[in-house]
Amino acid sequence: MSGPSDWLSQANLEVREEVRRRREDLVSTGKPPLIPLGELEEVAKRVSIAAPQDLRRCMDRLTDMGELRHFSDVPGLEDVVVIDPRWLADLMAKIVTTNEDRVRELGLNQGRTSMEALKKVVESECLPSTDKAPGLVRLMQHCGLVYAAAGGAAFVPPMLPDRMKQPLATLRGTLVEMSSESLPEHRRWWSAQYQYGRLPDNRLSRLLCRLLLLMPDAEVLDVWRFGALLRRPQRAVLALTCSRPEMAAVYTLHVAVCSPAPELLGARVSAVLGEELGGMEVGGERELEREGARGRPY
């Protein structure tokens, strides 16, 4: 494990100073603080940081210092480095916002807008000529701030209506009615409840986006801050919601699937929950049941 001496090595400090100079130059000319990855590699080579693993270690140190961010796993941003993370945070804050002017600019209606409106907001800060606006929008999707829906629509999960205190009976009734109308008679229910400690909003928002992507061909019938109701005609119904009693420290995620083989989609949901919220659970239970006369998703 590297210590403070590695953070403050002469080579790392020299790269940091060059990053700061480039940042000032870009800001002074009104350009976004983005530089090609190759440019940073050249700066590092001048101070004898040449091997890929050494460059990665240097970038990790500068990231820890708050000097830069590199998103190698986001299409469109693999070859660019953000050398002012505050600029990036400000850009995201233009999307997740209650500012009336920004809300009007986005056409934001209870967390619903369009991908075109989002793109225009990003392009106001990062001109189309940079060719990086699409990558920045994908980054927001990657972080769970944006979900691209069918027909060019978009959801901004943190801005969706909050239904944490909505009675589960309301959603249960909707599910039973919908499954009876749209699914074959040999349908079955899979339902589960998962309990977690404190769940930050950003984790729940990203989780919602991941679960929406489980059924990309499904119709999004309804979506709220930490929940959704999806329907795949003649094949499946999926519902997710999060509840938390007043003043309680436990969050409960309720999941219900209705289809001819609900355990298959249920297993995929469980896997996503494990990936996104692993280590935060305080308990959980599952049940699999055949639908009765009225049905009982949970």
Quickly give the CATH architecture of the largest domain. 2-Layer Sandwich
Oligomer kind:
single chain
CA radius of gyration is 23 Å
Order of helices and strands: HHEHHEHHEHHEEHEHEEEEHE
What proportion strand? Answer: 15-25%
Number of continuous helical runs:
11
Overall pLDDT level: 85
Could you tell me the CATH topology label of the largest domain: Double Stranded RNA Binding Domain
Largest beta-sheet details: 6 strands, antiparallel
Apparent shape: elongated
Q: State the domain count.
A: 3
Q: What would you call the structural class? A: alpha+beta
Distance between the termini: 47 Å
The helix content, as a percent range, equals 40-55%
CATH level 4 superfamily of the largest domain:
Sirohaem synthase, central domain
Unreliable segments of 5+ consecutive residues: 1-5, 290-295
Number of strands: 11
* CATH C-level category of the largest domain: Alpha Beta
Give the strand line-up of the largest sheet. Answer: 7-8-9-10-6-11
Polypeptide structure, described:
With 298 residues, the protein is an alpha+beta fold. It is built from eleven helices and eleven strands. A hairpin with a 4-residue loop joins strand 4 (147-148) and strand 5. The N and C termini lie far apart (47 Å). InterPro entries: COR-A.
